[in-house]
Write a structure and sequence with these properties.
Elements (H helix, E strand, L loop, with lengths): L4 E9 L3 H19 L2 E6 L4 H7 L5 H8 L3 E6 L14 H11 L4 E7 L12 H4 L3 E7 L9 E3 L4 E3 L5 H16 L4 E6 L5 H17 L4 E6 H10 L6 E4 L1 H12 L9 E5 L5 E5 L16 H13 L4 H16 L16 H13 L1
Parallel strand pairs: 1-2, 1-3, 3-12, 5-10, 8-9, 8-10
Antiparallel strand pairs: 4-5, 4-11, 6-7, 11-12
Helix pairs in contact: 1-10, 1-12, 6-7, 8-9, 10-11, 11-12
């Protein structure tokens, strides 16, 4: 295999973000060493840290660097210091603006359960076994980006979707499903919302014409929320709009035992993507060296696969994480009474397995 050169922007962000991205970068450096790749890393500001330094949650320098990078690795944004919902500049605005500026319209969130962590979830092990889901969430449309109004007496948030926005994220889900179990559950609220009716009809048209081998089922979001806990192993690919996807993926994180275990990828039409764990900045444990880096390390594996085309390397990282967990290298959030290891030690275990 020929060597690959890549420029990777690292946005540590706030709270535990810099701690977990540090371990993921160490893992990527180990992959580069083993396979003779050349990865260059460039750190920039986002979120609360960027607000403190520049007054902006997403400085122009960060946007420029991300736009010319091959991939972006991100930690987390936010914290009590910047939590005033009435503030004009908030950390999460940086994340939303980054996705919008890079036109990253599809968010992929894999949810699988490691056998060694079956007891870490509040869900019964017999219900969890066999769970292997990818949630595909539309990322740049819907109520989060619609026109917002507020007066002293009322407020409104406009939810809008275009056919094109739904088509392109459906194609991402269709391609994913073809490489998996060829099944998509599309989630909406078509019994109430006009945007969901457009969503449903557009998804049907795209899948029938372009992915006839993929089975499609429609499900209302409230039913999906129930079935995700009742029979999670029945789902393969879940396709949904922005807000529903945001809520359902946090619910799905409980299947894996901890928010700290789950990675994500935000993708557009090209190969550039933003890769981040789905957890927040966890300010209560920031600086203590106890955060779980596995979600970020698994996000780095997705970076290798989707942005750099290095599928073999991605599988090696994922296998290393699975082995470490099986061997009991567990951080405080997943140790279930066993001896917990530090953030650094968890990252070191993955690096050692890659280089051995």
């Amino acid at each position: 295999m020929s060597s690959v050169e890549a420029n990777i922007v690292v946005l540590g962000g706030d709270g535990i973000g810099p701690e977990v991205t540090t371990e993921a970068v160490r893992v990527l450096k180990a992959i580069a060493e083993r396979f003779k790749h050349t990865f260059k890393f460039e750190e920039h500001l986002i979120g609360g840290a960027a607000i403190d330094a520049t007054g902006s949650a997403l400085p122009a320098q960060t946007i420029s660097a991300c736009g010319t990078a091959d991939a972006v690795l991100l930690g987390a944004v936010g914290g009590p210091k910047w939590s005033d919902p009435n503030a004009k500049v908030r950390p999460e605005q940086g994340l939303l603006a980054l996705r919008k500026s890079l036109n990253l319209f599809a968010n992929l969130r894999p949810v699988s359960v490691f056998p060694a962590l079956l007891d870490s979830s509040p869900i019964k092990p017999e219900i969890l076994r066999g769970t292997d889901i990818v949630v595909v969430r539309e990322l740049t449309g819907g109520i989060y980006f619609g026109e917002k109004q507020r007066t002293a007496e009322s407020a409104s948030d406009l939810c809008t979707y275009t056919v094109e926005e739904i088509q392109r994220v459906t194609r991402v889900a269709g391609k994913l499903a073809q490489g998996r179990r060829k099944s998509i559950v599309s989630i909406d609220k078509a019994n109430v919302l006009e945007t969901s009716r457009l969503w449903r009809s557009t998804v049907e048209t795209v899948l029938r014409s372009e992915f006839p081998d993929v089975k499609l089922e429609h499900m209302l979001v409230d039913a999906a929320a129930m079935h995700l806990i009742r029979k999670p192993a029945s789902f393969d690919v879940m396709l949904t709009e922005n807000m529903f996807g945001d809520i359902l993926t946090d619910e799905a994180s409980m299947l894996a035992g901890s928010l700290g275990m789950l990675p994500s990828a935000s993708l557009g039409a090209g190969t550039l993507g933003v890769y981040e764990p789905i957890h927040g900045s966890a300010p209560d444990i920031a600086g203590k060296g106890i955060a779980n880096p596995y979600g970020t390390i698994l996000s780095a594996a997705m970076l290798l696969r989707h942005s750099l085309g290095l599928n073999e390397e991605a599988k090696i990282v994922e296998k290393a994480v699975a082995q470490a967990i099986e061997e009991g290298v567990l951080t405080a959030d997943i140790c279930a009474g066993k001896q917990a290891v530090s953030t650094r030690s968890a990252g070191e275990a993955i690096v050692n397995k890659i280089l051995q």
